[in-house]
Design a protein that fits this description.
By secondary structure, the protein is α/β, with parallel strands linked by helices. The chain folds into two domains: 3-164, Alpha/beta knot, CATH 3.40.1280.10; 179-240, Helicase, Ruva Protein, domain 3 (Orthogonal Bundle). The protein is built from ten helices and seven strands. The chain has helices spanning 16-28, 45-51, 55-59, 67-70, 94-106, 124-127, 147-164, 179-195, 206-219, 223-240, and strands at 6-11, 33-37, 62-64, 74-80, 91-92, 110-115, 132-134. It has a seven-stranded parallel sheet with strand order 3-2-1-6-4-7-5. Helix 8 (179-195) packs parallel to helix 10. The termini are far apart.
């Protein structure tokens, strides 16, 4: 099922009511997979009351200590944002985001949408784990949406596209690199840049690495391609020795 391959991840949610309201929003649109990263209060009576008919979503909710854990095995990660970033990231609207999510799910791959904390949204480090960002169009005078309202809009767009989609037959042709593998690759790349003297310290400028991460996230290498890249990096290191 398409819905079984799309998860919503809430990162460090401070208000339990937003968790319950998000579960309800997902339930009304046929989504079931909710992940919570370091929630301030869960379980909680207010979570349950705000979920209304979405209690079954809460029953199977997964709580993790890190975002990387929540994104484990995801081939596509989209993050929500209302603000511009110093290093620009590819941005899509909810309709295009739903197209991408359903396309991944139809191919048998896991996909995720992540929502940041209510006060400040996603951190730069969390954005770096996203292939693209979702921005919901709003009036220019006030761009801040309630967490559950944002989840409802995106879930609605997913339902529209999933309802018209048919399951793709057979296994996916490629195995996508998961977030853990990508993080290991970025660490390896950073190390090689230092050994090549491309950067002068083992911790290159944040903007440089962020732009390289953006580049490879946009390319979305599969596991075989990532192994080739890691092999090239290892060959460079062996050559330097």
């Amino acid at each position: 099922m398409i819905a079984d391959r799309i998860r919503f991840c809430l990162v460090r949610t401070t208000h339990p009511g937003n968790i319950g309201a998000t579960a309800r929003a997902m339930k009304t649109m046929g989504l079931q997979r909710l992940y919570l990263v370091e929630p301030a209060r869960f379980p909680d009576d207010e979570v349950t009351s705000r979920a209304a008919g979405g209690a079954d979503v809460l029953d199977q909710t997964v709580v993790t200590g890190t975002l990387v854990e929540a994104l484990d095995d995801c081939a596509l990660v989209l993050g929500t944002t209302a603000r511009e970033r110093k290093v620009g990231w590819p941005v899509v609207d909810p309709a295009r985001a739903a197209d991408l999510l359903v396309e991944e799910a139809r191919a048998g791959r896991q996909a995720a949408v992540i929502f940041g904390t209510e006060r400040s949204g996603l951190s730069n480090a969390e954005v770096e784990q996203c292939h693209k960002l979702i921005r919901i169009p709003t009036a220019h005078a006030y761009t801040s949406l309630n967490l559950a309202a944002a989840a409802q809009i995106i879930a609605y767009e997913i339902l529209k596209r999933a309802g018209a989609a048919t399951e793709a037959g057979g296994a996916p042709r490629t195995v996508a690199a998961d977030p853990r593998e990508m993080q290991r690759f970025y660490g390896h790349l950073q190390e090689v840049l230092y050994e090549l003297d491309f950067v002068k310290t083992r911790h290159p400028p944040v903007v440089l690495m962020r732009k390289l991460i953006r580049l490879f996230n946009r390319a979305r290498p599969d596991r075989e391609e990532l192994n080739i890249l890691r092999g090239i990096l290892t060959a460079v290191q062996n050559g330097l020795k």
